Amino acid sequence: MKLNRRTLLKGAAASAASIAMPQVVMGADNIKVGSIIDTSGIFDLYGKPMDKAVTLAIEEINESGGLLGRQLEKIDYDTQSDMALYTQYAKKLTRSDKVDVVHGGILSASREAIRPTLRKSKTLYFYNVQYEGGVCDRNIFCTGITPAQQAEVLVPETMERWGKKIYTLAADYNYGHITAKWIQHYAKENGGEVVQTDFFPLDVADFGATIAKIQDAAPDMIMSALVGGAHLSFYRQWAAAGMNKKIPMASTTMGVGNEHVVLTREEGDGIMMVYSYSKELDTPENKAFLSKWDARFGNSDDLHELAVATYQGMHLWAEGVRKADSIDREKVIEALESGVSFDAPTGKISLDAKTHHAVTSVHLIEVGDQKMNVVKSFGERQPVDTQGVCDLEANPDDNQQYEISI
Question: Class assignment of domain 147-275?
Answer without folding.
Answer: alpha beta
